[in-house]
């Protein structure tokens, strides 16, 4: 496969693949289980971790 053929393939189908991947990843958060996981991940920094102490943070 020559460079020009590879470049043409990447310009056409690579863009389609990246667009579909983007739509899939963004759409995942609007599903019920994806929305719940996103909310849990967003609030994770506010949860107390009983195993860590002040000394662990420097």
Distinctive features:
58 residues, mainly alpha, 2 helices
Number of strands: 0
N-to-C CA distance: 54 Å
Low-confidence stretches: none
Sheet of most strands? none
Tally of helical segments: 2
Radius of gyration: 21 Å
Binned, the helix content reads 55-70%
Silhouette: elongated
Structure description:
The chain has two helices and no strands. It is mainly alpha-helical and 58 residues long. The relative contact order is 0.06.
Structure at a glance:
The chain has helices at residues 3-28, 32-43. With 58 residues, it is mainly alpha-helical.
List the helices and strands and how they pair.
Elements: H1 3-28, H2 32-43
């Amino acid at each position: 496969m020559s460079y020009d053929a590879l470049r043409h393939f990447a310009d056409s189908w690579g863009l389609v693949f990246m667009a579909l991947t983007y739509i899939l990843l963004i759409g995942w958060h609007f599903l019920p289980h994806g929305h719940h996981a996103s909310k849990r991940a967003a609030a994770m920094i506010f949860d107390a971790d009983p195993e860590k102490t002040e000394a662990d943070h420097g």
